[in-house]
């Protein structure tokens, strides 16, 4: 913007538009405890629901006795599957085309499964009554391992017995869900057979959980007088919830109002539809009173959407010089008791087929088998776009393993295989079109900043010192280069439950030159109220401070598919820019009329329209807004409003280069992160400060997943990590200082060139932390060891390598 005269520069700065590190407008209420979360919704006569949950991972429900619970003072109702069956609500459709029990119908399939729903005067009475419901179970054999499940005679889903085809094609076994194949298997196998070098590696991306600070919950309020159902909830996709609620309940969609108030973190956990929502709605319809259901932490960890649980085997082929020639990837995906994965319909394994990563790999093949086990359903993209984190972890580990096999430097191996700048838009072997990228520039900048060569030298010296017995710490240099794929749509490729994945923005300019804009997305902490106003400020020339952003109320917001998969900027952000341009187009006509010149003789200049070549003749956007309501202009309607429903032509492909330097104490297994450098390229940057916050948050969650966070089960299907005593949630204590950096490669198809960024640091961070741990032991013969790298497992790795002798 250095072409601006000082005066224009000042006007431009006043807008607080694109590129401004504008302070988050939502923080005024958050930092003062004035946020309005679901649990803050309190209504007269409101009842409280709580679940009776199964202690067993697999059991027949022989009987449920509600008598003692119903006898407790304050208990209003106890619902079981039998009560829901006449309404046909004892099962519900999942986002993956499967169906899921709302309340146990004859059997339970995972520990923590919902068996009965108690409704009581207050939360405490409800909890007491839960204890009084007597359920008789008959235990069944438990399958927690997907490979065993595929061989077992035990039929997990009796409701599907005999069905040889599912929503995603043929089923090979009664516990098999689908096989999803992408790419050319024959060609890939041919390359693997004739290649100079082929390495094979198997890895497990463990089951974990998004664990937002606020758990999932809702308040359902059925007004029997006007027939209107209002549902407040922790929903990442409020409009989708409204449509599903309408389809399930038969209540017409205009009579359902879904409100997502402030949300205390989503991370994919709040995309799916949970039994608690259905039960609360039914309970409110039955009792005629509002019903609140908010799960506790243990319920959240045990029963709501898990993430990952992918067993991945890769084969990578290369020339002796390290040029990759082919990639084969076979995945066994543990989906738990019901296939409730949140993915676009045509992608039963999400965007796992971006597993060729940032590399120019001519042929590739991917096959994913989905399998039922006795674990919780879900399968959400915890801070990644539909399984991208699995894909990126897979390829970034395969690269490391190939580097070991070739005895090559892993940074150099990446460099010679990167997709080159001039190859964009790039067609990947598994069917994606990467919109833009400049990987070499980013990589060189990253390596130079951290003095990569110096680090390798230091590492080699450390290895020698260790061998001489002078030190007991090893140094790991973790590298990762990732490409994300965010912004689903386009509608022709991506839908959820048949609803195309577009998004929307509606703007209304007020006469005094301020505005309200509503979008189909919903912030869960990302700061949309701050950043969407910035996009609009630059488009329409009104200060971001004069623009209110509203999301999450289906009675007022235009239809949208919600916020997950970093899609808000690529899709709703684009809708905002497009709606802004419509406003500008009308404003141009108004300005021309007011200035008494032809439409083509005025041009937009930051916050005004000026007569071309006569900058002193202008009308500001404020003048124009006023005129739009108060001046009868021939041929123009009054008012200044616009709406855009945006169907993106493609997804956006943000990328980044990360380096982690770690010192590992071989005797305790404790890793000390010395340095973490993250370079992100998300195209045009809307708010650098918010981006930095997003990167810090995503890296923190990456650290968690790589270094300890997991949902672990024992053989009986007991969840071993159902409290924050056992489930690792990092705090300031564990989190290192993160250094952030960037390059800017705009998206060629996005109206303002922006790509998503919220998930990137997680996607790139997990392999970076993991590679650092593994790299520390490379000199001692380690090829691969599975995450999470908690202290005990790191110690075990050192022990297995004989480093404790
Ligand atoms: N941005 C800027 N620039 C650019 C891009 C972006 O500035 N270029 C910014 C925006 O505006 C916002 C943010 O940043 O505010 C983000 O964005 P994105 O990327 O677009 O995204 P979104 O859609 O909005 O969001 C979503 C994401 C996700 S997906 C996740 S997980 C996470 C993240 O986001 N989550 C969260 N981040 C966050 N943060 C917070 N605080 N919280 C939360 O919860 Mo998924 O799928 O759901 O799993």
TrEMBL record:
Matches recorded under Gene3D superfamilies: Aldehyde oxidase/xanthine dehydrogenase, a/b hammerhead (3.90.1170.50), Aldehyde oxidase/xanthine dehydrogenase, molybdopterin binding domain (3.30.365.10)
GO molecular-function term, one example from the UniProt record: carbon-monoxide oxygenase activity
Keyword field: Copper, Metal-binding, Molybdenum, Oxidoreductase
The keyword Ribonucleoprotein appears for this protein: no
InterPro entries: Ald_Oxase/Xan_DH_a/b, Ald_Oxase/Xan_DH_a/b_sf, Ald_Oxase/xanthine_DH-like, AldOxase/xan_DH_MoCoBD1, AldOxase/xan_DH_MoCoBD2, AldOxase/xan_DH_Mopterin-bd_sf, CO_Mo_DH_lsu
Superkingdom: Bacteria
Reaction catalyzed: CO + a quinone + H2O = a quinol + CO2
Cofactor(s) annotated in UniProt: Mo-molybdopterin cytosine dinucleotide; Cu(+)
Domain (Aldehyde oxidase/xanthine dehydrogenase a/b hammerhead) ranges: 32-141
Enzyme Commission identifier(s): 1.2.5.3
Pfam families, per database record: Ald_Xan_dh_C (PF01315), MoCoBD_1 (PF02738), MoCoBD_2 (PF20256)
Function noted in UniProt: Catalyzes the oxidation of carbon monoxide to carbon dioxide.
Subunit record text: Dimer of heterotrimers. Each heterotrimer consists of a large, a medium and a small subunit.
Protein name: Carbon monoxide dehydrogenase large chain
Source organism: Parasedimentitalea psychrophila
Lineage, top ranks: Bacteria, Pseudomonadati, Pseudomonadota, Alphaproteobacteria, Rhodobacterales
